[in-house]
Amino acid sequence: MEISDKEFFAPGHRACAGCGATIGVRLALKVLGENTVAISATGCLEVISTPYPETAWEIPWMHVAFENAAAVASGVEAALKSQGKTDTTVVVFGGDGGTADIGLQALSGAMERGHNLIYICYDNEAYMNTGIQRSGATPYGASTTTSPHGKESFGEDKPKKNMPMIMAAHGVPYVATASISYPEDFMKKVKKAAEVEGPAYIHLQQPCTTGWGYNPAKTIELGRLAVETGSWILYEIEEGEFKVTYRPIQRRAVNEYLNAQKRFKHLTDLEKERIQSHVDAICIELKI
Amino acid sequence: MVSVGAAVKEPGSTRKNKTGSWRTFKPILDKEKCIECENCIMFCPEGCINKDYDIDYDYCKGCGICEEECPVKAIKMERE
Amino acid sequence: MVLKVMSANQAIAEAVRLANPNVIPVYPITPQTTISEYLAKFVADGDIKAEYIRVESEHSAISACLGASGTGVRVFTATSSQGLALMHEIIFAAAGLRAPIVMADANRALSAPLSIWNDQQDSISERDSGWMQIYAENGQEALDSILISYRVSEDKKVLLPSMVCIDGFILTHTVEPVDVPGKEDVDKFLPLYKPEHAYLDPKRPMSIGTFTDPNYYMEARHDMEVALEGAKEVIAKANTEFAEIFGRKYDFVEKYKSDDADIILVAMGSICSSIKDVVDELRDKGEKIGLVRVRVFRPFPTDEIYEAIKGASKIGVLDKNVSFSIGGVLHNEIKAKMDVDAYGFIVGLGGRDIKPEHIKEIIEKTKNPTKHSQWIGLNKEDL
Ligand SMILES: Cc1ncc(C[n+]2csc(CCOP(=O)(O)OP(=O)(O)O)c2C)c(N)n1
Ligand code: SF4
Ligand code: SF4
Ligand code: SF4
Ligand SMILES: [Mg+2]
After folding, report:
1. Ligand 5 being an ion, which residues bring their Cβ within 5 A of it?
2. Is B23 in the pocket of ligand 3 (CB under 6 A)?
3. Dihedral (CA of C283, C285, C286, C289) sign
4. In chain A, N or C terminus with fewer CB closer than 10 Å?
5. What is the CATH number of the domain that holds B79?
6. How far is it, in rounded angstroms, from Cα A152 to Cα C201?
7. What is the pLDDT of residues A166-178, one digit of tens each?
8. Does the reported pTM lie above 0.95?
9. Are the C-beta atoms of residues C371 and C341 closer than 8 Å to each other?
10. Residue B53 falls within a domain, yes or no?
């Protein structure tokens, strides 16, 4: 695959040391190249990348609000089309909150209308920018500042919202999950997303040192553990065709993933077993 | 004076902000040991390792991902 | 000149056809809906070369406008009431990002209780956003105001969005003869929009919508204040050129028999037509009554209003809106900015009919004031 040596997301940005979100953006932009317009939703990525009068973006970039990135991108795409600039790629980077919660309506509208754009949800599984509050994408059992564990609580009591399948239900030509820890897989998917005519959605898992509670050096390792334990599955849905794109050779115990993070530290063995059997059920169905 | 609409017309201008000062541990890359797998380049959140495997210490925040992801232990974190 | 009989909504659609925006994201809501429909038909028939985006909400309509405007093209949307309220967050962002969006608002009451009928609470509630606001009296003025708004909004010295407000049903659904100008004249008046301040172009990457700390935010907002004040000069020039090309002269305020008036009413929008009839009637009886119609509400034309009303002994200000516990907004703004003896009257909320008797009652109460602000036209049992 042709990827650029150039960096389209400059250093000097204000992300925490070891931030997984910026790795995702760097990799995606290396595939998409300079003829790309990026739109961000409010969230970590937007805040850390454009502290006025500076910007980390080497390509045109726009941010308006938290919940409307897909709608802004719809306007950008339509406007470029109206000027005959159809060779310019429009890519959105929305956090899991900006995507699965507050921005879901705007995203649904944009997907259904068929705009030719790529929507990448960078999923760190909580509202990190505002201090680790739970989102619809927060996994079962995670302790966040609005789903804290306590005497009466084991943390988040709902399973993670299945965003990629919600997107697939829109019948868009390309939907995929990805992880920053599997860059070839992710970048291949970005490439496909760029080549497909119409909307494409990529749900990118991105470990967050601050929100998940682990040593920043372990960002890639955490993403890997998620996939190797079957907690996060890499697949794509091309024109309705579902395909797992990566299968761990030997699925590892979910505990390895859970125990590496502070947000799951409070879980009892029983709760961890419950999570393991949930993961098993999905993996068995998918032959992982 | 603020630009109209607070637009920034200098792409990549966060480079003015040398985040190297955040670092407490410094990655040292041993080119002799390096097998050029590019993991460190790929995974650096700052994009501050170039294709000649030079680390730009102006921006390296010392996260330690490169050391962690080097398959041949060619990178060592050293206290500043 | 070819006069065609049409509603103000159709007149606005005709203006949009003539201004030819590249992108039209729009969402239906009574009484704006027919604007969306006329525009959809224009696009379907190839009369406008534009991308018409059937967005899933007004929030997305204005967001898509902002995205499209960000690439440097002309855009248009229209809404009303709940739709405008839903846009609120992005209305402020549009002004802050200095996007020269032009929007029509079919003035309608805000819920609750739910009402589809006219008042001006919706647009008045956006007065602090940094948008320009024009309140039209009729379909012709609605059409002309759209063209003038593009011209002013897109001016380098201004770069702020514009809202053209037309009273729901009273204007949106009432037909009258309108002169639809020729495309050539419009092109003369309204050159192509060429953005310089900010645009999304891979050949010259810019970041739009950045994050400011306390060192910058206040200057950015102050710049908006300066731009909105500066817009007055640009509006004046646009009005003059508009008159030269199209023969219709607009101003910040319209003075109707007010020069020698002892009692002056001040109001905005279609109600002014009814007030003019009452003024005529009372003038025939020898009463020195006049009307000052505020056409441009933002930027607020303090000097023009003051010049027009300062000669009167008493002034009655009609507001189709209320800021609860303080009264009508136009009344309060006039009181805040000018040393005049002005009394406020809240009228016509949620489509309440404003009859000539009401206007006469207001005149009487202005002559013999008992309260600074009062509601006119309430059902008797509620008084
Ligand atoms: C309408 C609105 N509500 C709330 C906020 C506050 N807010 C800003 S970012 C954010 C959370 C973002 O979470 P996510 O989308 O997951 O992105 P992350 O910060 O994790 O990268 C919230 C709640 C806002 N800016 N706008
Ligand atoms: S909180 Fe997490 S996602 Fe946000 S900048 Fe820090 S590491 Fe990145
Ligand atoms: S320590 Fe982190 S920031 Fe520094 S070069 Fe290695 S990966 Fe990049
Ligand atoms: S990760 Fe190690 S082996 Fe691979 S390129 Fe970097 S220094 Fe060389
Ligand atoms: Mg998040």
Report:
1. A 95-96, 124, 128
2. no
3. negative
4. N
5. 3.30.70.20
6. 53
7. 999 999 999 999 9
8. yes
9. no
10. yes
